[in-house]
Amino acid sequence: MQWYQKTEEAIFAELETSATGLTQKQVSERLAKYGENVVGDEDAVNYFEILLHQLKSPLVVILLIAAAVTTLLGEFIDAGVIGAVVILNGLIGFIQESKAEQSVRSLQKMVTPKALAIRDGKEMEIDSRTLQPGDIVILFSGAMVPADIRLIEANELRIDESMLTGESLPANKLPELIPEDDLSPGDQVNMSFMGTIVVNGRGKGIVTETGLKTMLGGIAQDIRSIGKVAAPIQEKIERLAKAIGVLVLSAASLLFILGLALGESIKNMFLTAVAVSVATVPEGLPIVVTIAMAVGVKRMASYNAVIRKLAAVETLGSTTVICSDKTGTLTVNRMTVTKIFDGKDEMTITGTGYIPEGEFTTANGDKTPLTESLQHVLRIGLLCNESRLVQKDDTWEVEGDPTEGALIVSALKSGMTMDEKKAWPEIAILPFESDRGYMATLHEHAGKKFLFVKGGHDRLLTACDPTLFPYGTTIDLIDEEAHEMAAKGLRVLAFAVKEMPAETTTVSDADAMNGLQFMGLQGMMDPPRPEAIEAVANCQSAGIRVVMITGDHADTAYAIARMLGINTAHDGAVTGTRLAKMTDQELSEIVQEESVFARIAPDDKFRIINSLKEHGEIVAVTGDGVNDAPALRTAHIGVSMGKGGTDVARESSDMVLIDDNFSSIFHAVREGRIVFDNLRKAIFFLLPTGLAAVWSILLTMIFGLPIPFVAAQLLWINLVTNGLQDVAFAFEPGEKDVGDRPPRPTDEGIINSLLLQRTVIVSLCIALGVYGVFSAALEQGVNLEKARTLAMTTMVFFQFFQAINSRAERASIFTINPFSNHFLLVSMILAVGAQISVVYVSSLQWVFRTQPLSGEEWGICISIASIIILVVEIEKALRRTIRQKAL
Q1: 463 shares a domain with 391
Q2: Which residues have a catalytic role annotated?
Q3: What is the pTM of this model?
Q4: Are 342 and 310 within one domain?
């Protein structure tokens, strides 16, 4: 049994307490046993351990070895560049990881520092950290609930639990025992939970759980247990680094052994093997990854999306499922009247939120003047009301109940003003109470007294006189209309009026519960954001599944999901109660079929996310409440709301939407895909040259020729071709179809089969070209140093044209604007200038053992190197033809 299922007496007995509260002695004993009522205390962060963690990546190890080798070779500039890359990436990782614990610490801010409790029979204000199970706590309007509490008294008590359950409206609390099993937090109406806020009334309860045993504490523990979730790009980079490491070691060893077998000296082959190793390792890759994602961050900032962790940019691009909260994320988090009915006519009201702007239209979309009866329905909602609509700067807010605020807004949309209060002054009021189920106000107008009543339609219809129904309507017709509204996810309120004797000055239940004249219904909801509807459609077009996970009611969630265009099952939403009874295997099957989950507790949401991950999905989760924090952390990427979100959610997330606009997620997905594309382009640019160096050296060895490069020349090729061009690919604009593609296969690495095949083709082509130029020069009697200068120059220009090839994976490079990436254009010009300097500057000739080339020799190098464009264009054309035939 859980606390909500136990009687007051049973809880008193189990916790050894009473209505007079704990004694100071009991508090001291329990403080020693249970500890303080806190959820955010953490051990100090071990910064040294975090720093060491940054050196565990295989790619970092390779880079450190490369830096050491280049230092031994005397190439201090190259070694410095590699060392800077290691430091930069280590610094970024250190900062990100050291901030990871902030999400748990921010939970501590959710706990109120003071609490009103009864101890030793006296009411006193105490430090909430000292609260213990068995304490008696008093709750009042505006207070934050200091622990998990089983209510024993509740007087019009309503608590805002949206940050915990996701429900739009404050929860009405009642002290009675609830016998049902496995209720979600939102259905435990006799419980109040730490961190939630009292918005109305008073209550008293017994503290049942404190600290980490509360629901909020459970969330904190879930966050801790998750640890650091590796982004897909990080995992793929590590796999690539391992593969490159094996390739480098194998190629260097093969060259060393083969060289010795062919009679080369140990020293010469050692230097060659080391130089080939450095040339093959794409040491520019980590900085390309960092800069590409930084560019994505800058682009996304224009869509009000702030990236907290760089890896989140690419992760969004590979997302296959977005699990979204409903309230405030897919919806505006503002109750809005959308339907009105007066017994005959039903009209739709446009506009969302509390902005008093909108239109009234018929079922056909026609705009017609409101009938007098419809206007009177709106007037009752406006005047039988205890809340206020106020304008603050450029926004409208409701002071009071969100439902009453929606009624004020619907009346103002019709053209009414608050001057109605002067024309119909209020004389008396019968306030709303949950057990009463309605509210009534007495007004005077034109010398007469009128009683306005609003409440649930079932309750009000029993008090209405059927002979006074407008337009000859019936109870059955009104019931049918109310149920149709409810089926659409609307909360339905009925409105009635009764003329009172002129001498009436007070209002009683007897007055309000008989002889009423039914006037109409208003249906309201927290409507979908218009931009969210478009965003959901765009996500689905991009092959991304959208799943709604909310703490709100199942009917409401199902209706909102259908409005948003989320694929829904015919039997409605999957509820938390149903989910709690499922095994992990049953849940695994459900999450692949269902897209709407309602009345979901934090633990259930956690299970759903992990189940999707087990299916190989790349999961993004959006949310704004404390209840979303574990899911935000365990998902591959967490997206929190900047305006309406809690600190806990923001600290647990990878990305924050400043304007809470769900549509920004699609822009983020597009930018993420561009980032990944650019990383692939950079890799395709980097790898073939290193492989080509290996192939060309093998070819010359096999055919008995001298090695075409000295070690210094290999390092120069690596520096001049990889120094700037690889980074330039981070600024490459997206291709036209980037937002319409399906998500990449989740098991696909950075190098897919297409890229691997093309890398082999290009590297062999470059090697053959270099070998051809080198061997032809030797045959013509050119000395070895000039032949090597020709080979090195040809290799540099091969990479020049390879940079052009790498700008598009499938499209012809002739369809791409050559000036759209200024960084790449400038870097290529600088690379050519640097190569000219190496060939003609005497000091550089001495370092790199080069000789001047004639104009004809430059022409030969450039002509041979340009063949690579023709080769790749033919390969692309063949692939496009094969793909078209397959379709």
Answers
A1: yes
A2: 325
A3: 0.64
A4: no
